[in-house]
Amino acid sequence: MRQSSTLVLTIALTLLAAIMLAIVPLPDWSRAFRPEWVLLVLIYWSMALPAMVGVGVAWSVGLLMDVMEGSLIGQHALGFAVTVYVVLHLYQRIRAFPLAQQAAAVTLLLIPYMSVSLWVLGMSGHSPGAWRYWAPLLTSALVWPVVFPVLRSLRRRATRF
Amino acid sequence: MLIAYPIQYLVDLPSSAGHWASDKLGTHASLIAEIERLREEHLQLKTRLLTYESLEGENARLRGLLASAERFREHRILVAELLSIDMDPFRQKVVINKGETQGVYEGQPILDANGVMGQVTDVDPVSATAILISDPSHAIPVQINRNGVRTLAVGTGQADRLVLPHIPANTDILAGDVASTSGLGGLYPSDYPVAEITEVKRLPGEPFARVSARPLARLDRAREVLLVWWDLDPGGDIAPEGDSHSGAGTEERERAGTPGITSETMAVRTGPLRPADRPEETGR
């Protein structure tokens, strides 16, 4: 019981940190390259603890992100839920990948999320209309080798208690 | 949203703390220089205000001669600060640190020192979200200062560009013209500068000119914005509910005489200068 409450706290805090990273102001030129921090953290937790973090958590966090960023309600929620759903099907395979291959897998996992966002943006008349829209695919894969070990060590520390 | 604000506040904290610290720890010399500069600017503005006041008087007299119902109105203004957080990069939105408790209402115009910035879309207890005039889903009714041509300025998603899509190719419009709010649509007060026309392309074979403009407000750089309480036309039926106002907002409303119809307000209602009292609402 005690162990799981530490774990829940760890998950919540890492998600909070990711949300904060997602809205920290960046210089204009680099805004388009911001990695999808929240989704990376969600992917990690749903991969490591599929029983605790699933589509429901992804959906709720997505709604919070929508409110945070002022995007159309449900845009992030839908994208996150779809991605986590895919992760829940593939987590056993992705877990076994070496880090570099995992990063490549993360890139692929981000594609449905980015496509959903693109559709929603296009339908609400905010079409990005530049290849730069896809830049987070690359930057997210680049930060994954850092995100993964950090989150893993946090998880191990949380489960040891 | 109420849940979002603490997190947004937390993210904003380092930057506002930085501003606070640079104010507190500024050297004596730089503070004196700043005061000097502000004093000079204050003097200049005051001088300009003198002429403005005499012009206002003259304007009122002339309008009196023409028996026109329009008159100058003072607007109540409140300074708000932007939270330095990044919103959705494909929408032009900002969060300000004033909300319902300060009487901010939905649809309220926000300005900076140079021009119109946008309007409030969501109001929370202590913060509010506003859409900028450069958002692709925002349009603002404007008129060209030089000749009074009325049109709409629509956002493009870039902070430095608006487009005016509904200008027939033979309309008299030139690069360098300044477009101000026309006051039609009922959301923005009239005669605030919005944008400067930068480019007019007239393509043979196209019925409309391609007109681009640059917003005069510093949409991507401003840190302080002005919230404006302005009186809609007295008797205007879409006037924001009085209860969302507090303090000076209500007393200003009462001064304008929303409940009691005076002869003046009747004149506005039937006045010849405002044929289109309230066309469609824009910018939602």
What is the quaternary state of this protein? heterodimer
Low-confidence runs of at least 5 consecutive residues of chain A? none
Strand order of the largest sheet of chain B: 1-12-3-4-5-2
Radius of gyration of chain B: 21 Å
The whole-number mean of residue pLDDT values of chain A reads: 90
The overall pLDDT of chain B, averaged over residues, is 78
The main pleated sheet of chain A reads as: none
Structural class of chain B: alpha+beta
Q: Give the biggest beta sheet of chain B.
A: 6 strands, antiparallel
Anisotropy-based shape of chain B: globular
Largest interface: A-B, 24 and 25 residues
Word description of this protein:
The complex is a heterodimer of chains A (161) and B (284). Chain A has 161 residues and is mostly helical. Chain A has six helices and no strands. The radius of gyration of chain A is 15 Å and the shape is globular. With 284 residues, chain B is α+β, with helices and mostly antiparallel strands. Chain B is 27% helix and 23% strand. In chain B, the strands form two sheets. In chain B, strands 1-12-3-4-5-2 form a six-stranded antiparallel β-sheet, with helices on one face. The model of chain B is unreliable at 233-284 (pLDDT under 50). The interface between A and B is medium-sized, with 24 and 25 residues.
Features of the shown structure:
heterodimer, A: 161 residues, mainly alpha, 6 helices, 76% helix, globular, B: 284 residues, alpha+beta, six-stranded antiparallel β-sheet, six-stranded antiparallel barrel, 4 helices, 12 strands, 23% strand, disordered C terminus
What is this entry, summarized?
The complex is a heterodimer of chains A (161) and B (284). Chain A has 161 residues and is mainly α.
Helices and strands in order, then pairings?
The complex is a heterodimer of chains A (161) and B (284).
Chain A: H1 2-23, H2 37-48, H3 55-69, H4 75-96, H5 99-123, H6 135-160
Chain B: H1 4-24, H2 28-66, E1 76-81, E2 93-96, E3 109-111, E4 116-123, E5 128-132, E6 139-144, E7 150-155, E8 162-164, E9 178-181, E10 193-201, E11 210-215, E12 224-229, H3 248-256, H4 263-270
Antiparallel strand pairs in B: 1-12, 2-5, 3-4, 3-12, 4-5, 6-7, 6-9, 7-8, 8-11, 9-10, 10-11
